[in-house]
Structure formats: C-alpha cells, structure tokens
Fold each of these.
Amino acid sequence: MSFGTGFDLFEVQSIPEKGKGLVARSNIAKVLIEKPLFTLDPEADLVESSVVSKVKALSKDKQRQFLALHNNFPGKNVFSGVFRTNALPCGPESVVGAVYPTICLINHCCDPNSHNNWNNKTSSETIHAVRDMKAGEEIMIPYAKQEASFTRRALLKSSFGFDCSCSLCSLPVSELKKSEARRLRIEELDQAIGEPSRLVNAPTKALADCQEMARVIEEEFPNGSASPLEASLYYDAFQISITHGDEARASAFAERAYRARVICEGEDSPETENMERLMNKPTIHRNYGISKRWRMTKNMVSKGLDGKEFDE
C-alpha cells in the first residue's frame, strides 16, 4: 500500500452522473494533505461580498480553480453559491469553513472509503483511506453524518442537489431497513452514552451501552470503514473508566481510540497525539479523581487473555 501526501497517488477523472472526482492510481493509505484556498466564517460575514473579496485576493490560477467548483445554488450570488456548496468545516465544531481546489472534487458515499479531517496544527485538511483502496477505485468521503438514510438523503438533496444512489442507499429494501435500524440504534446509544449524569451515576450501564454500540458498529460497517465512529466511542469508554479511577480499562480504551485515530486522521493529528498521551498516562485527564469507585492502576490489566476474553 502506497503512502503519500502529494498528488501522485490519484488523478482527477470524469465520473458518470457526478461530474469530476478523484480516482486512486495505486493502493493507498494517506491520500492528500491540502491547504485551503481561503477560510470564512459565514455566520459572522456578509457572505457574497466576503467571498468575492477573498477570491479577488487569490492568484488568477487559484481564482479559476475556485470558480471551476460545483455550484448547487445558481443565481446572482455565484461566489457564495460555490462556497456554500463546497466549504468544509475547519474542525467538527467549527463554524469556519474552507474551500480546496482538489479536496472539494471528492464525491460523496454513505459508506465511504476515506475520511476528511481538519488538522489544527498544520492548518490543512487531510484525507485518509479508512479501508484498503485499490488502484482505479474512486476516493469518496461522507458529506452527511452516518445517520439513517431518510435523514441523510434529505440533507444531501437540499444541500448538494443530488439523490444519493451509492451502494448503501441502493440496497434491497429489506437490507436497507436493517441498516436503518442499526444506524438509529447507534444514534440512540451515542446520545445515552454522552449523557453527563449517566457517566457519573450509572457508569456500568454507560459502559454496557458502549459495548452494544461497538457490536452494532461492527455489524453495520463490516468492511472496516467505521474508524471515526470507533475513535469517538472508545474515547467515551475511556472517560467513563477514568472518571471512576479505573486506569487499567481507561488505558486500554485510549489505546483503541488512538489506533482508530491513526487510521482516519494520521499520527500527526492533534487529537491522535492527545489519545497517545492519555493511553500512556490516563491520570492526566481532567476527570481523574472525581470518583474512586473502580480504582485500578494501569499495570493491573489482565494478562494472557484472548481477544474475546479481553473485550469482556
């Protein structure tokens, strides 16, 4: 499997019914790191005038790259239409968006083979393959959250102007209903696990929810493309454990979160580096010391267990 950060691992091709897209030239891991053409906070700025100003500040070549991007909002506000169609958030909770000449050509799939992530340390967007990708395969990321199809397909239609017909959305009705049920259950479990009062008052139930969520994720994503979800899940399990003084389980969960982050974000991601620190020294987390209900030191992890026994 090739590993690189430049433009030698893929090529831009015309994709039937999609326009342009990126296709792998060889079997790849890290696909691309790219700096934005510009960033903008659409909530704080008058978008059309602000985008025009940003584009005018670019070189002629970069101006052409921006205007060549797809616009799902045709009309008099061409510049803001292109921005709204293509901008990616600079981090999961960020309201600041960024546009890229190449990354913005990547098409959507509800069961993607790649993951996009903003790296605060390098001020760039990264694309990583989350499962094995063969030469000739189109590189695809999710435009919507891993939600039930009726939710994400409505969002894709309103925001990007297309009816999704990816491999997941094209499943037979019976199989699609099973996927719907699994994704709805993942959402329910995620909300329950994230409830602060349960973390403190019902940690055993919260960890049981984590275990069920791990099982449902494995069923829904058998090809191994769920590393972003797994990274979040195992960090939640880490927080539950360390809140109650269980350094052994906390360290084990942090290691799994770290491995998942490496896959979808790379070793140089600040979030990945933070998980590595927590893996090595879980007691530095702010929740350590709140409770000693499950007090166990890091070196008390059971030895000689197989994978299933260790999980249990």
Amino acid sequence: MASVNRTTMEVGCPKCETIISASVPRGTTIDATASDSRSQLRGTETECRSCGHELEVYFY
C-alpha cells in the first residue's frame, strides 16, 4: 500500500527513453525563510526496469 504522503514522479531514462516512476514525498512550496529541511534539495535513486540504468531524482 502506498503512503498517503508520497506521490509518483515519472521521468524518462536518458539511456533507453523508458518511462521510470519514482516515489517522492508530496510537494510543498519552497519557503526561502524556512530554516528546516523543507527548503533543502533532497533526492532518491531508482533503476530503469528496461536497461538497468540508475537514475537520481532530486526535489524540494
């Protein structure tokens, strides 16, 4: 069961152009005045199911 606080981001594999789905936290707006982790760039890794190419997806 997927977590309510996560969403799926779809990106194309740069090696074989297969669509990859990565699970990321639901977005919030970027707050330049926030001193917590909401304004910091975060990332997740996933692998292409067709060619095995590893992708890194970054988000705020």
